[in-house]
Amino acid sequence: MSPFFTSRWVTPPGQVTQLGEDGDAGLPAGFRAAGVPARIKPSGAPDVALIACDSLAVSSHAMFTRSGTQSAPVLVCRERCELHRIAAVVVNSGNANAATGGPGYDDALRMQELAATATGVHPSRVAVASTGVIGVPLPMERVTSGIAAAGRVLAADGDRTFSDAIRTTDAFEKRARVQVTLPSGTVTVTAQAKGAGMISPGFATLLCFVQTDAAMSAQTCELLLSVCVKRSFDRISVDGQLSTSDTVILQASGASGVTVAPESEDELRLGEAIDAVMRQLALLVVADGEGARRTGRVVVHGGEERIVARVARSVANSPLVKAALYGGDPNWGRIVQAVGAAMPHVAPLALDVSIEGVQVCSAGAFVPHDEPALAAAVAGDEVQYEIGLPGEGAEAEVYFSDLGHEYVTINAEYTT
Amino acid sequence: MSPFFTSRWVTPPGQVTQLGEDGDAGLPAGFRAAGVPARIKPSGAPDVALIACDSLAVSSHAMFTRSGTQSAPVLVCRERCELHRIAAVVVNSGNANAATGGPGYDDALRMQELAATATGVHPSRVAVASTGVIGVPLPMERVTSGIAAAGRVLAADGDRTFSDAIRTTDAFEKRARVQVTLPSGTVTVTAQAKGAGMISPGFATLLCFVQTDAAMSAQTCELLLSVCVKRSFDRISVDGQLSTSDTVILQASGASGVTVAPESEDELRLGEAIDAVMRQLALLVVADGEGARRTGRVVVHGGEERIVARVARSVANSPLVKAALYGGDPNWGRIVQAVGAAMPHVAPLALDVSIEGVQVCSAGAFVPHDEPALAAAVAGDEVQYEIGLPGEGAEAEVYFSDLGHEYVTINAEYTT
């Protein structure tokens, strides 16, 4: 069986067991899904996706991009959707429905209504998401027939086609299926994500949909999702860009009959499971992209939460650090530069830097080290940078992709 | 005569006349300079530079990077130098003397002493600057003999060799010589800059040295330099990275006998001249770099100073916008995305976007436009983006370079 948990930075907890082989499909009890081609994408690949929960007891939570130019579907979700009890989600790829003004908003509302009809729920219980090119009106005839077609083929093992239909430039599928053994019983968690690291011409939009058959309140959904997003998708840097369309939704059908009560051991264990799934999915997003060679992890220790977070982000977003990672070059001067940029007016700074466990800088000054050994250590798939700032008690980590030729090629030559 | 003022975005005022042909040299009265090879650079190119003012009445001002990991020479300038009356400046290229700790600080102090001896002034009146690789100790024997050698060949037309010796990966020289007609008489302004846009392996460190034979107080130097830096080097984005070593120094010898009094017409006219010179130098820094094809200018209008500045910076730093500029692609969706990223939680945003005068987005929604005409307009050397946010009265502009293959090649394959 090819394992889902491939990163050394994610250790699935003991209560988590991967379900089936790679490529197997199957949603938790209570869910059906489908993805179909509707000719929104010129390639003819699947581009309309639908997921529906058949349980009246479904609870949910949703989180969105902070962008000031949110897409129409994000606005519709925020303004016209009961986010604590989302029964169905409709998604299209190939067009972001962003910067489309009032007509775009109406199109997103229409998608919500069509999906409500296709799944038999009230429109206010349908979430909408779109990903793709910005500033182009949705081809509503195609979207309309796509939603109807998807509604006709909803299936308990529709997570595979659903996952296909939400992809844009993703080089590989990002889909998880795990069983979680809780004190009160066994539940299933599945998730489908899209996001293609640095090379997405339509921006590195992130979509992630998580389903479970556990029974829990919307408040519990909110707690688990917000904690897990903070530890996963909020900790990745692709190109430091913020999409108009990022959407993450957790739905709990309750169909397993296993109740996850607030502040229970069940809640803790389920949280750990969802955390591991979402962290691995986030790392797959970082690792994706034609020609992306390496994934970096920067961990910053110091005395102030705000500062360590800013420094970690500065290092992870630095094109100089990213290009060095791509080249397998242990160019630690770039780390020093990125740290200094994030901490104005504090020089001299007693900064420590280690790369893959090799200390290269101590109290702001270089440390003689075994250069060939370090060069060999940064040639792997995953490279870890540790930064020590004055003080202690605070820590931040960010995962990031490298900056390679393919990013330039695709993003320079993509035509709107 | 090949003109210095080549950008359509800089109009030299009437009182400014370029001196001599491209390649001609000559400093304002009272200054001598030199640049020599000292084998700090493996290439054998000039790498130690010295400039000296022979007038006891010299006044000056200096500005430095805000980085929290400032290089040793920046720390020495800030802590051990009388910045209002700098008589001499010593510079080396090929090594930044950054992240070198206490020994690096001592090396920078030693450079200050050596240059003081070579020019016959007190060490506290010598500024020090270094640019190049980070985290490697300075080869002090070579630096020592280099400073002595430069001291022996100081010359009134030494600005050309000085300029050569401060370069690192700069593809072309950035040097200005102008005459300025003031109400009280005629003065000369010269300047030498280095900074190689996005592709500098040693980071896009910026050094700029400006000399004039006008007579003015240190307070006037401070006023003129800080205003001009704000309108030039503070308004460029190379890769959004902040160097450990940025240094800008203005020195006024007074040797012309033309006094520039505070709040006088002379001060205004001289300020306009230095402004034009520094803006053009800043644009040359942006345009430099192997393979840098195009320079962008983003102008943001709106109601709040803080917001328009942040949005302009976000657009100029966006790798997606930069890659589109490189590809000659009018991908205005990327502008919308970068604006949204800089203005969280304000959606929907009534945003206007024009590229080269063609409006593509109005009140947040796309505007049908002549796409072939727009594509032709963004194929030139300089591309202008105008962004309208709600409100009025505030404006910010940033100049930026594109993101091309050579950036990746050089920054990925550079070995420390």
Q: What's the SSE blueprint?
A:
2 copies of one chain form a homodimer.
Chain A: E1 16-18, E2 31-36, E3 48-53, E4 59-64, H1 72-80, E5 88-95, H2 101-119, E6 126-133, H3 140-152, H4 159-165, E7 174-182, E8 185-194, E9 207-212, H5 218-231, E10 236-237, E11 247-252, H6 265-287, E12 295-302, H7 305-317, H8 319-326, H9 333-342, E13 352-355, E14 358-362, E15 365-366, H10 371-377, E16 382-388, E17 394-401, H11 405-413
Parallel strand pairs in A: 5-6, 9-11, 10-17, 12-16
Antiparallel strand pairs in A: 1-7, 2-3, 3-5, 4-11, 7-8, 8-9, 12-17, 13-14, 13-16, 14-15
Helix pairs in contact in A: 1-2, 2-3, 5-6, 7-9
Task: Summarize the structure in words.
Two copies of one chain form a homodimer. Chain A has 416 residues and is α+β, with helices and mostly antiparallel strands. Chain A folds into two domains: 16-287, L-amino peptidase D-ALA esterase/amidase (4-Layer Sandwich); 295-413, Roll (Ubiquitin-like (UB roll)). Chain A contains eleven helices and 17 strands. The first copy, chain A, has helices at residues 72-80, 101-119, 140-152, 159-165, 218-231, 265-287, 305-317, 319-326, 333-342, 371-377, 405-413; strands at 16-18, 31-36, 48-53, 59-64, 88-95, 126-133, 174-182, 185-194, 207-212, 236-237, 247-252, 295-302, 352-355, 358-362, 365-366, 382-388, 394-401. The first copy, chain A, has a seven-stranded mixed beta sheet with strand order 10-17-12-16-13-14-15, sandwiched between helices. In chain A, strand 7 (174-182) and strand 8 form a beta hairpin. In chain A, helix 2 packs parallel to helix 3, helix 5 (218-231) crosses helix 6 (265-287) and helix 7 crosses helix 9. Chain A is globular. In chain A, 62% of the residues are buried. The model of chain A is unreliable at 198-203 (pLDDT under 50). Chains A and B meet through helix 2, helix 8, helix 9, strand 15 and helix 11 of A and helix 2, helix 8, helix 9, strand 15 and helix 11 of B.
